[in-house]
Predict the 3D structure of the following.
Amino acid sequence: MAFFQNTSGTELVRDQWPGSVARTAADELAYQQLTHQHVVPCTYEDMCEWAYVWHDARSHNFSRQFRLLHHPTPTYDQMNLRHVEITFRFQGFLGKHNLKTLGNWNGNPERAYRASQSIELHGGHFPEVFSAQFHAFEHVKTLVHRALLSEDELFHMLSDIGDNTEQRIAFDRRVFTKVFNPATIVDQWRITEKLALGRRLADGTIERCNQFIFARGDFVDVAAAVDIANVKTYRGIPGVSIQLCPRHVVQLCKAADVPTILNVPADIALDAVAEPSIESTGLLF
């Protein structure tokens, strides 16, 4: 797991939220004790030394053959290098979301490839704390774009992307994975891995939960990897889609308790009612 720093590089974003609410019992190490790989750089130049885009030629998914990995450190034994994919830890207030087990799938097998679970985070009354994560991830996107696109392709693609002036961080996870079924000799869409959902207890430990727990305005922790896909823009020019694929979502503080625990006005918990849902994940942490 990689944690974000504040913009001055003196403290983790995790530790800047009031009341240590973003720390769990599993987060035992302080900022100074974390290794180089576990702290996300503040600047783009440092990001280029910290992460790189790796081509996985063995992948059968030709639109997704690239992954964001840690640069090996000088202390690694060169004979034991491992490809370590980066997982980022974000904190923020839950906005629009769909955590149903089948996401937005409408039941049509032909639309299974588009089924996804989605999350949106914002900073609420703490825009400065949240913006450190937002800007650091912008550096990640710049690195991936420059690694995979020519200058002309990059220019055209960025001109087609609107500015995220509200500083919201979006996550999107594909529900189904295409797998080969030797019995039918065809590819089929299956759920091969579920999104882990949990909630923080008073003692800092995490217990499993289902999607009924989550509501808009909750303060949450999201662990996510970077999903890189080759696409074409609407102009037909090659481009790259960069999405954050969530691995876990943990409710650190429910919306109703935010005003008390984080000492903010009660309007932070607007629309704190979850959309109706029909399935639970039943996952263990």
